[in-house]
Write a structure and sequence with these properties.
about 425 residues, alpha+beta, five-stranded mixed sheet, three-stranded antiparallel sheet, 16 helices
Length: about 425
Amino acid sequence: MSAPRHPVADNTLALLARGYAWLPDRMRRTAAPLVRTRLLGRHAVALRGPDAVRFLYDERHVRRHGALPEPVRSTLFGHGAVHTLDGEAHRVRKAMFLSLLTGPDRVAGLVGHTTAAWDEAVARWADRPRVVLFDEASRVITRGVCRWAGVPLEDAEVAPVARDLVAMVDGFATPGPRHWRARAARGRREAWLARLVEGVRDGSAKAPEDSAVGVVARHRDADGRELGPRTAAVELLNILRPTVAVCWFVSFAAHALHRWPEHRKRLREDGRDGEGAYAEAFVHEVRRFYPFAPFIAGRAATDLSWRGRPIPSGALVLLDLHGQDHDAALWEDPYAFDPRRFLHRPPGRDELVPQGGGDRATGHRCPGEDVTVALLRALVARLARLEYEVPEQDLSIPLRRVPTRPRSGFVIADVRPSGD
């Protein structure tokens, strides 16, 4: 199977210039079932829709090994991470994450530690004239997830650790200072956690056996070998980092409550930890409506065909996440923020894909999706009950910036705890 006869221009610079809008715009301008382009000099095709999700996550078609560019491995995921594996190696490593991040007791434990950290922080916010919610949420979640994971963290360490975990996400998709901060942050935190893993193994550091630190330190891969200390650190960061990245969604939820305050009353009625149906629907709508990941990519494992169009072996296969979450073929009035769309029907597994799709047990779907939803339910319920002012600020969300967020980080002032 050959590439198209006519050369396709490289769109790397266009992607950097357009951000989230680049791929949906390309998809809208074609009647073909796929978009053909080049990225970083490589032939690439882009797909969208539930059938495309199932196609991309089928390892007979698309593999992740060799698909992630070096800048992404060196910032977001880490070298040797589960995201770079396929086949049995991936399934065994993924099972470790599933054992930690799924199940009601595991999720409830993490939510409990994080909401306790939130309540502690809110008591301090009342003494400050203004706080930046994005920054504060990152510190709250860092404190909570480290307590839950068995990572020892002194009070003075919370802010710098949170800053580094945020930097790894913030700098993966951009050149320049943000990218270099992300690389430096990853180097610091991999070395930090590798020392902790070595300490657990030689007995100089303590971690409960069922904690994330204990499980990762003792995990054996498909070949029967323990993870090297640096690889173990990479995988611990792949628990801490995406959990702390929930701070993006917290700031988006605050943005939504500010723009559409009618949702606040219903969220307040849903219980302290957002146990009700409306909180769940609101969280799903935040994840659908606001931009998080623009797309994911794999590598064609062999010559393929998608709806009659050839995809040559080795080509990048992109799944348009942001475009799919705003596709009028899937969502009525997709650019309206309306949690009611999820009140009577939960999102289909391969329809709502802010963090990717597919089966999380066997594929590359984020194993922490339950954690994301549960944390957001609890934090959004608390946010809805919090009394505060929103001073004048820049609340625009630039689509060119990946990952984006409200420019101001969402500043709140005169915080008054709810007292319930």
